[in-house]
Design goal:
This protein has about 450 residues and is an alpha/beta fold. It folds into 2 domains: about 260 residues, Rossmann fold (3-Layer(aba) Sandwich), CATH 3.40.50.2000; about 180 residues, 3-Layer(aba) Sandwich (Rossmann fold), CATH 3.40.50. About 40% of the residues lie in helices and about 15% in strands. The chain has 18 helices and 15 strands. Strands 4-2-1-5-6-7-8 form a 7-stranded parallel β-sheet. α11 packs across α16, α14 packs across α17 and α16 crosses α17. It is globular and about 60 Å long. It binds uridine-5'-diphosphate-xylopyranose. Uridine-5'-diphosphate-xylopyranose (UDX) binds next to α1, α13 and α14. InterPro entries: UDP_glucos_trans, UDP_glycos_trans_CS. Belongs to the UDP-glycosyltransferase family.
Length: about 450
């Protein structure tokens, strides 16, 4: 069939930080732009490009182009670097040069770039955008609440190590130290990452746009506070319209996976389960559970009444108790990766035991799935605080003095959501937030209007 030549309003280069949890929202945002007649070129590192699985059902790459830059580790990626610090230094040295080469190439291609949308974890692309005279839009992948905390650390308004037992920040409920991101409450834990998250604010004042992966109604007070400083626009949730808005045909999954998926097996199994009967368990793409924690979780799932679908990434598989998978086939399915959106949208799923990564949180909010929060590190503790106390869409599993969630607690938390009285209130709240998320991305909704405004100003330049 002959290809129809599309007419575009503008051309955006979209550059995520090379991690699954950052590629997903920026790829989803790219699809939204593409749908609104903006040409998008998604840029990844060469290593990611060569190793990613492209979903066979993803139609996005028929119109979204893929290009690469270098982080200095084209063979082997981040795992080959001596340390996170060494990787980041290399990326900030080699990245700008190869990004500039790409922009040169595209400027002579007949479809020059108007705007660079770049991940806030890397401030350096803004200098490249300025050099080329194009719009620089920084994209914050995490919640505005978390951004607010890092901003206060960056400005020295929240001093580390923490000394107060109650932390008061504008637009946020009173927080205890353990509600803050792990890099903040445990300063020595990962200094390189602390530098990254604080560095997000090093040149944000010079960005033309500050795009936030959230929706206004979800974080109203923090967003209002941020809007006093920067040209903030909330654009989330970036969930494919297939799930939130049935008017549009969209693809089945995110489109790019850094892990090989067993999704067909998941869907087949879920299709055989009763409505609302399954507990979905996943800890995202990066968290590494303590071996003892993995065992407690496994036995907790086995002991509970509900069936479960548990994602255990290949690198974590050795921590699952021996024989557990074979002996639990009646009760649960363990897979190494799935299309999480499709799973969360499935009517059989009644609860999500999650590490509270921001994407997982926003996906559950948008699909109305109640949560059992088991935060592990980075921003997840703050997300868990909001899940339980602000949005009231889940419970938080309590840890013992060793920081482990024990078998009984796993079982009780799941039971509370699936069968308890509190579970009913939580389900009602989850449905309320689902509806608000849908409205935000619908015609005339807060995020939809913000994206339209962003595009309109690009077009006027
Ligand atoms: C990391 C941090 O943990 C997170 O807190 C931060 O906001 C982004 O970077 P990650 O640990 O991967 O992300 O968690 P999360 O943010 O939840 O992102 C995981 C993504 O992978 C989600 O979009 C989820 O839908 C997807 N996923 C996960 C799958 O598609 N299949 C799976 O089996 C598991």
């Amino acid at each position: 069939m002959e290809k129809v030549q599309r007419v575009y309003k503008a051309h955006c280069l979209v550059l995520p930080f090379p991690l699954q949890g950052h590629i997903n929202p920026l790829l989803q945002f790219s699809k939204l732009l593409d749908h609104k007649q903006v040409k998008v070129t998604l840029v990844t590192t060469r290593f990611i490009y060569n190793t990613m699985y492209r979903g066979s059902s993803c139609t996005a790459f028929e119109s979204i182009s893929l290009e690469t830059i270098s982080d200095g580790y084209d063979e082997g990626g981040r795992a080959k670097a001596e340390s996170t610090q060494a990787y980041l230094e290399s990326f900030s040295k080699v990245g700008p040069q190869t990004l500039a080469e790409l922009l040169e190439k595209l400027s002579g291609s007949g479809c020059p770039v108007d705007c660079l949308v770049y991940d806030s974890f890397m401030p350096w692309p803004l200098d490249v955008a300025k050099k080329f005279g194009i719009v620089g839009a920084v994209f914050f992948t995490q919640s505005c609440a978390v951004d607010n905390i890092y901003y206060h650390v960056n400005k020295g308004l929240l001093k580390l190590p923490l000394t107060d037992s109650k932390i008061l920040l504008p637009g946020m409920p009173p927080l205890e130290p353990l509600d803050l991101p792990s890099f903040v409450y445990d300063v020595g834990y990962n200094p390189a990452f602390l530098e990254v998250v604080i560095g997000q604010f090093s040149n944000v004042d010079k960005a033309d746009w500050v795009l936030c992966n959230t929706f206004y109604e979800l974080e109203e007070q923090v967003v209002d506070w941020m809007t006093d400083f920067w040209p903030v626009r909330t654009i989330g949730p970036t969930i494919p319209s297939r799930y939130l808005d049935k008017r549009l045909e969209d693809d089945k999954d995110y489109g790019v996976n850094l892990f090989k998926s067993n999704n067909d097996a998941c869907m087949k199994w879920l299709n055989e389960q009763r409505k609302g009967s399954v507990v979905y368990v996943s800890f995202g793409s990066a968290a590494q559970l303590d071996g003892e924690q993995m065992e407690e979780l496994a036995w907790g799932l086995r002991r509970g009444k509900s069936k479960f679908l548990w994602v255990v990434r290949e690198l974590e598989a050795a921590k699952v108790p021996e024989g557990f998978i074979e002996e639990t086939t009646e009760k649960g399915l363990v897979v190494s990766w799935c299309s999480q959106l499709e799973v969360l949208a499935h009517e059989a799923v009644g609860c999500f035991v999650t590490h509270c990564g921001w994407n997982s949180t926003l996906e559950a909010v948008s699909l109305g799935v109640p949560l059992v929060a088991m935060p592990q590190w980075t921003d997840q503790s703050t997300n868990a605080k909001y899940i339980r106390d602000v949005w009231k869409i889940g419970v938080k599993a309590q840890t013992d003095e060793k920081g482990i969630v024990r078998v009984g607690e796993v079982e009780n938390c799941i039971c509370e959501i699936m069968e308890g009285k509190r579970g009913k209130d939580i389900q009602r709240n989850a449905m309320k937030w689902k509806e608000l998320a849908r409205k935000a991305v619908d015609e005339g909704g807060s995020s939809n209007k913000n994206i339209d405004e962003f595009i309109a100003i690009l077009v006027k330049r």
